[in-house]
Amino acid sequence: MTKPITRKTSSSPAGQPQQDIYTRVTAKILTDLENGNLSWRKPWHSEHLASQVMRPLRWNDIPYTGINTLILWNAASDQGFTSPYWMTFKQATEMKASVRKGEKGTQIVYANKFTKEEEDANGDLKSSQIPFLKSYTVFNASQIDGLSDGFYQTPEPVVIHQQARDQALEQFFAQTKADIYTGSKACYTQTTDRIQMPPYESFETAKRFYAVLAHEMCHWTKPPHRLNRDFGKKHYGDEGYAKEELVAELGACFLSADLGVEPQPEEHHAAYIQSWLEVLKDDKRFIFQAASHAQKAVEYIHALQCS
């Protein structure tokens, strides 16, 4: 009989307690929220990053996703980094570059699962997937000497005409086949599976229109026949409502960065901040879950471009 695999699940494979990883990341975001700041919107308000926000990139141009997007955006904003590129000490060394002496790296996480086998009451082996987090350190290209010039170039701002509709973005949202109609407010209604948007002309700029639409599109991914995302919302303003709004908020920021538009604040953001504070204080892991749900929503929307 195969011997059951036993592993400790209280720590990541790197030895750092998983709870410490969750607590560290959540504590930073809670501090920002308590000061009225949204960690994931900081880059758009940083003088050195404004109008050129994009996803953080690995050395090979593959974007970071989920919670690592938030961590690295926050670090870049706080430390004044302009390069979108991040890499490990080893990766920099392999490119014959060197991290400058005294530079402090940024800890991000790698999420995966391992298979655990246990015997049930009948003596049969049952397998289960156990999630784990591994923490590791990366450095921004701004902290590294000897990289090729491309790693140090500041991304060019995406220029969208102030009023004219952007045909590329029009095509992007049309390709989703979402039912979008003009009404008095911006909202997604799950019972009718429709997105309502105010008239295009009522927005100050084209960017504002597409940014608000990006938020509602993230809500649109929620129903069972799409991503089946359910936080148990019973009524407006309850915990389930707050969780879904946080997912849509993060998703809108991710999607806006991909499309080159600045995410726009919801009219109830002040109230949302309070509800998000309560949710994150009660559940130190939820910001990781929310970022994962947001990433899935954005990937779902992107995948429709190929259908």
Outline the structure in words:
There is one protein chain. The chain has 307 residues and is of the alpha+beta class. It has 2 domains: 18-151, no CATH class; 167-306, no CATH class. The protein has helices spanning 18-34, 42-45, 66-79, 89-94, 167-174, 206-220, 239-259, 269-282, 286-303; strands at residues 86-87, 98-99, 106-119, 125-140, 144-145, 180-182, 187-189, 194-197. The strands form 3 sheets. It has a 3-stranded antiparallel sheet with strand order 1-4-3. Helix 1 runs antiparallel to helix 8, helix 7 packs across helix 8 and helix 7 (239-259) packs across helix 9. The longest helix is centred in the C-terminal third of the chain and has 21 residues, at 239-259. It is globular and about 55 Å long.
Strand content: 5-15%
Going across the major beta sheet, what is the strand order? 1-4-3
Shape category? globular
Distance between the amino and carboxyl termini:
47 Å
Biggest sheet details: 3 strands, antiparallel
SSE arrangement, N to C: HHHEHEEEEHEEEHHHH
> What fraction, in percent, of the residue positions are helical?
25-40%
If you compute it from the alpha carbons, what radius of gyration comes out, rounded to the nearest whole angstrom?
Answer: 21 Å
Pairing-aware structural class of the strands and helices? alpha+beta
The residue-averaged pLDDT reads 87
Number of domains: 2
What is the number of helices? 9
Number of strands: 8
| Assembly state of the chains shown | single chain
Low-confidence segments, ≥5 residues, pLDDT <50?
A: 1-15
